[in-house]
Design brief:
This protein is of the alpha+beta class. The protein is 38% helix and 21% strand. The relative contact order is 0.10. The chain binds a DNA duplex through α3, α9, β9, β11 and β12.
DNA sequence: TCTGGGGTCCTAGGACCC
DNA sequence: TCTGGGGTCCTAGGACCC
């Protein structure tokens, strides 16, 4: 098996930089301290992506813009542009599909490519990787790292090595000197909580983890211990999945409100706007959902959630909203609300669920379908609930409006 | 902390059944 | 009830990824 992992370098920032150059900008954002960041006014002021010069000031992804500016006062901050990112992501994916029939989109800026069968057509893996990397640079305007190995895990680890615009291999025989000296935090699936536990028992490098008794790890970390022990030893048999093989398990939208919500009616407005987005996405999947969940984050950052299973699966905006209101009322403890979220899951394909027994729902189904068609043709704002018209609240809340595609299973 | 939004998977505890 | 054991389902929360 020969697997490539292709990772766009500081994706959001590079894509914005490439667009601006194309539009005639004189400075390349990648060459100055810059970040893609949210808006502190809307209480979403965090760093989403950073340039390499910004990184040299110690700016980190996920920290607040306030902190980032403390480290680098002359930081250029650019708001995110998700439509652009989707276009760039699609372009990269389509380019990769020219080199293999097995390409898995792992996230907006990462793909796995199974090169095993491609070797007889395109030659040595290293040469093909170089061709792909250079084509993306010259034709799409941004750089990528490509990791090459015998499985997805090692390919992904390899692409994390020196950046940007680099190709690295990490074959099993290279683990000892390329992978094992690295700190455990660098290993895929070792996050904050796990690294803290590992460091506590004096496991500090990936190599030390690889040489720890796996049964001991299991008592400490349950099944997760076995997962990371395998990864530390470069063991991973997961295949590269084409996108159509991946079934999405759930979908949701959430939003941080620019102010704290303190009354029920206001909360309902945001919940309705979120339900509009979630239910439209659900219907675009041609699925019904059986589980609905509402989550709340309070002004003091306490999160809690409440879910319920439906007796009758649904995809109706009104049906989902009624459940959402009920769940919200059952769980809200009247604290000021900072953030609201809705998610639906336990999908049933509409093709396998005949609604003929429930003819009374036909009308509302037709209504939802008609609304979806009008919005698709004339834009989401062409048809909105009247309760939003004289409010300052957007009738849709939540980010995903473009064509959905399944990504990011935490199993590689 | 001026602290996002979209996902997946796992686990613990309780309810319920035989 | 001073009572058991095993299975399944449901729920809430946490860990991880980008």
């Amino acid at each position: 098996m020969i697997i490539f992992h292709i990772d766009a370098n500081s994706a959001y920032l590079s894509w914005e930089a490439a667009l601006r150059l194309e539009q005639g900008a004189r400075t390349d954002l990648r060459n100055i301290p810059s970040v893609i960041g949210g808006d502190p006014e809307k209480r979403s002021g965090i760093v989403l992506a950073k340039s390499i010069p910004a990184k040299k000031y110690g700016v980190k992804t996920g920290e607040t813009l306030y902190e980032a500016r403390q480290k680098c006062p002359e930081l250029t901050v650019i708001p995110p542009n998700y439509d652009l990112y989707l276009k760039c992501s699609n372009a990269m994916y389509e380019m990769l599909c020219l080199y293999s029939s097995k390409v898995q989109r792992y996230s907006i800026d990462e793909c796995f490519l199974d090169y095993t069968e491609s070797e007889k057509i395109f030659g040595r893996p290293i040469d093909a990787a170089l061709t792909i990397k250079e084509r993306i640079k010259s034709e799409l305007g941004f750089t990528v790292n490509i990791g090459i190995s015998a499985n997805k895990l090692l390919a992904k680890m390899a692409s994390e090595f020196e950046k940007p615009d680099k190709i690295h291999t990490l074959f099993p025989e290279e683990m000892e000197f390329k992978l094992w000296p690295l700190p455990i935090e660098d290993l895929f699936m070792v996050g904050r909580a796990t690294s803290k536990k590992l460091r506590k028992i004096n496991i500090n490098t990936i190599g030390e983890l690889a040489h720890t008794n796996v049964l001991y790890l299991k008592t400490l970390l349950k099944s997760h211990g076995i997962v990371i022990w395998n990864y530390a030893n470069g063991i991973d048999y997961s295949p590269v999945h084409n996108n159509d093989e991946i079934i999405q398990k759930g979908l949701g939208n959430s939003t941080t409100i620019p102010f704290d919500i303190t009354n029920r009616e206001e909360a309902y407005m945001f919940l309705l706007a979120l339900t509009e987005r979630v239910s439209m996405r659900l219907r675009s999947f041609n699925c019904l959902c059986s589980l609905i969940s509402v989550s709340i984050k309070t002004d003091s950052f306490i999160r809690y959630s409440h879910q319920a299973k439906l007796n009758t699966p649904t995809d109706s905006t009104t049906g989902i909203f009624n459940s959402v209101k009920k769940l919200f009322n059952e769980v809200w403890k009247c604290e000021p609300i900072r953030h609201l979220g809705i998610r639906v899951s336990e999908f049933i394909s509409k093709d396998f669920y005949q609604l003929s027994f429930f003819d009374s729902t036909e009308n509302s189904q037709n209504l939802d379908r008609t609304i979806d068609m009008i919005r698709k043709k004339y834009g989401d704002r062409s048809l909105v609930r009247s309760c939003f018209i004289h409010s300052n609240i957007s009738p849709f809340q939540g980010g995903v409006n473009e064509e959905d595609y399944p990504m990011m299973s935490s199993l590689l």
